[in-house]
Amino acid sequence: MPPPIALTIAGSDPSGGAGLQADLKTFHRFGCYGMSAVTLITAQNTQGVSRVDLLDPTVVLAQLEAVWCDLPPAAVKTGAIGSAALIEAVAGFLATRRGCPLIVDPVMISKHGHRLLPEDAVRALTEHLLPLASVVTPNWHEAGALTGGLVHNHADARRAAYALRATGAAAVLVKGGAGHDGLSADLLVDAEGELELPALRLASRATHGTGCTFAAALTAHLALGQPLREAAIRAKAFVHHAIATAPGLGGGVGPVNHWA
Amino acid sequence: MPPPIALTIAGSDPSGGAGLQADLKTFHRFGCYGMSAVTLITAQNTQGVSRVDLLDPTVVLAQLEAVWCDLPPAAVKTGAIGSAALIEAVAGFLATRRGCPLIVDPVMISKHGHRLLPEDAVRALTEHLLPLASVVTPNWHEAGALTGGLVHNHADARRAAYALRATGAAAVLVKGGAGHDGLSADLLVDAEGELELPALRLASRATHGTGCTFAAALTAHLALGQPLREAAIRAKAFVHHAIATAPGLGGGVGPVNHWA
């Protein structure tokens, strides 16, 4: 039996902790054959982002067309896409090729606070890409930005999750948020209702690429045929362990342990 | 102990079998933390290359500068670089940052026959990059092109290896070549002399990315601190096993098994 194929459509992080590099490492970790269509090139390390260059939409489409016809994926993940034009191109491509799970990680801002998605592209995301999503994985900040509000607490997160499901996304998983009790809790809202995914909050600086890594692990488990709720629980446990056993690389917000 | 860091400076293969994707999978397989600076974007699958877009040299340099100062590599590999201007930029950067092994895989043509390096860039490679190399890993065709001749047999390969060492490269490993006896033999020429690395030649169509994967495995073993000859023997055994256990993906020249 060949391994299931997982495709990421994402930006490049040369430092290897986030972006398509983190996705490929995570797919590999879970036995999925990884493919990656590049959308944008960042220059970054654990301390900051120094440059972002978007690729032309025709370059992204050429990559997608090349891989899709020859190596059809079992699951697809999107990460940083970078502009309204790129989002519309990717969504237009995926709209005609349904049939496998689509995990949309609405990357907007890097861990260092560098904006990776201009504000006008947020509407393109909600209008064109979210309606195709099997699951969307915003953090509190992204959930707020996508719903035109702010997410300060778990009640806000819950409201945002339902608002995002109303765009047409089949499920929404709002990540994290620091509780005063030392716990963090993700909230999954799907057709069956709600599922809370609590975890101990780790006091770690090694959180570079945790969003990408979580969504990639979710994608891998869906590519392997697991149901969404089981895939989410496994992906969360993996990222927790990956942070807890981070290799301690770099002088800033370090990468997690993708072998975890 | 954190894992050693391995950096590839290479093109992107969205289908995941060659280029920086194959490098990252191979680094990961051997316990090295993988980083990748992108030089060019291909659209390709197992059947052919449909498009190649070179990045601007300043984009490549920005990636290298970002990662080098924060996450210094234990070994560096170069793959497809794509133009004389890009080669000069990369070589100029690496010339001021010696001190770790540099593996130069002089990628010129994809397995489907698609040219990835214009002829005028070949001189840039021999003049600027090869003198910095700890080891250069051409196949017969590349060894010929780099030395202004043709390599048809093991005697030609041996002559080309010595000619390439004369550029300043510390070692040259000329790969493969089909013998009539069902054997293939790589030839390593280093400061100690010659080492032949014979292997059974596999009748397999799954050879997409074998050059990248071999050089990446060599890079990983050097990053882990192994001597060149031991690293070369291990890398060759890995690629042999990776071809023999290829996952059978795609309709053309399929990828190897990077978990091998």
Q: Would you spell out the secondary-structure blueprint of this structure?
A:
2 copies of one chain form a homodimer.
Chain A: E1 5-12, H1 19-29, E2 33-44, E3 49-54, H2 57-70, E4 75-78, H3 84-95, E5 102-104, H4 119-129, E6 135-136, H5 140-146, H6 154-165, E7 172-174, E8 183-190, E9 193-200, H7 210-223, H8 228-244
Parallel strand pairs in A: 1-2, 1-4, 4-5, 5-6
Antiparallel strand pairs in A: 2-3, 7-8, 8-9
Question: Can you describe this structure?
Answer:
- Chain A has helices spanning 19-29, 57-70, 84-95, 119-129, 140-146, 154-165, 210-223, 228-244, and strands at 5-12, 33-44, 49-54, 75-78, 102-104, 135-136, 172-174, 183-190, 193-200.
- Chain A is α/β, with parallel strands linked by helices and 260 residues long.
- The first copy, chain A, has one domain (5-244): Ribokinase (UDP-N-acetylmuramoyl-L-alanine:D-glutamate ligase, 3-Layer(aba) Sandwich), CATH 3.40.1190.
- Chain A has a six-stranded mixed sheet with strand order 3-2-1-4-5-6.
- The radius of gyration of chain A is 17 Å and the shape is globular.
- Chains A and B meet through helix 1, strand 2, strand 3 and helix 2 of A and helix 1, strand 2, strand 3 and helix 2 of B.
